[in-house]
Amino acid sequence: MAEQKKEAAEMEEEVQANSDTETNSGTESQLGTEDVSQEAAGEEAAETPEEGAEETEETPEGEDPKTWAEKRAAKKQAKQDKKSQVLKEQIEQLEDKVKRQLAEFENFRNRSEKEKLAMFETGAKSVIEKMLPVVDNFERGLAMVPEEKKEDPFVDGMNRIYKQLLTELENIGVKPIEAVGQEFDPNFHNAVMQVASEEYESGVVAQELQKGYTYRDSVVRHSMVAVVE
Asked: How far apart are CA 219 and CA 211, in angstroms?
C-alpha cells in the first residue's frame, strides 16, 4: 500500500514538471513572436515616409515669394525642356537608323531582282541559241522541196511544225533581224564577204547567208551577210 502511494506521488511530480516546461516554452515563443513583430513594424515605419510629407524649399530671406515661385517654375520647366530635347534627339536618331536600314533593304531587293533577271536572261539566251540550228535545218529542208511536192502531207506537216516553232519563239520575245536592203550595222550584222550589186548602194546588205535573231532587244545571233562593195 505504501509503495502504491509512493508511485502515485512520483507520477504527480512528473506531470507537474512537464506542465511547467510547456508553459515556459509557450511564453518564450509568444515573447519571441512579439519581438519580431515589433522589429518589423519599426523597420516598416522607418522605411515609410510620413504621409503628407513633401520636399519643399523655403523662400530665401528677402525674396518675393511670387518671384521665387516663378523662378522655381522656370527652372523646373527648363529641366523638362532639356529632357524633352534629349528624347527628341534620340527619336530622330532611331528614325534615321530605321530609314537607312529600309533604304539598304530596298537597294538589296532591287539588286537581287536585277541579278535574278540577268540570270534568267542568260539561261533563256542559252536555250534559244541551241534551238536556232533546228530552225535553220527546217528552213534548209523546206527550201529543198520541189514545187510539185509542196502539197504533200508530210511536207505540209513539216511546214506547220516550222511555223509553230517560229510562233512560240516570237511569243517569248525572239525576232529575226532584218538584213537584206538594210544598211550594214555591226551591232546586228556580221559581214563575211563583199559583192557587187546594181540594185543596192555601197554599204548595204545585198545577201543574207544566215538569219540572225534578237531576244528582248538583245542580239542572240548576228546575221551572216554579204555587203555591197
From this structure: 12
